[in-house]
Amino acid sequence: MLDAARYVTPDTLDLTRYFLGRTFAWGLFQDRFGTVRRRFSAVIDGAWQGDTFVMTEAFRNDDGSGEHRVWRIDPSHHGRFSAMADDVVGRAEGRANGPEVSLSYRIRLTVGGRGLVARFDDRMVLIDEDTVANRARVSKFGITLGEVTILFRRDAGGGLPRCAA
Length: 165
What we know:
By secondary structure, the chain is mostly beta strands.
C-alpha cells in the first residue's frame, strides 16, 4: 500500500539533519551551451564534531577520476550558516529558507590540466524527506561557464549505488 504521507514535501531543509549519516548523489555538469561534459556519482558522510557539522564527499567521475572534499559547516541563527573546505577560497555563505537552501562560494578547480577559481551559486530544494535536488550556476568574472545538477538521496540501508566512489 502506498504511504502518501511519505511523499508530502517537508517544510524545511536543514542540511545538518538531511546529510547526517550516509547520502548518495548523482549528477552532471553542462557547459554554457547545454552540452553534458561530465557525469558523476558521490557518497557523502555527515557527522557532528563538537559544534561543527562535517560532510565528507567522495566523487567518482565518468572518466574514472575521483575527487574528495571535506566541508565544515558552522550553523548560525535565523537560517544563515557558513562553511569551509580546503579548495574553497574564503568561506561559503549559505541561507536556509523553508524547503530551499542557497549557498555561494568560490572554489579552486582543475579543468583541462589548468587551475582556475570559479564561483558556484547553489540552490538546493527538498523534494521529500529522503531526496534533495541541487542546481548550481558556475561562473567566472560574472560569465556563466556552465551548470551542475545533482540529485541527493539518503541511504536507506541498501548499500552503494552503481558507479559510486
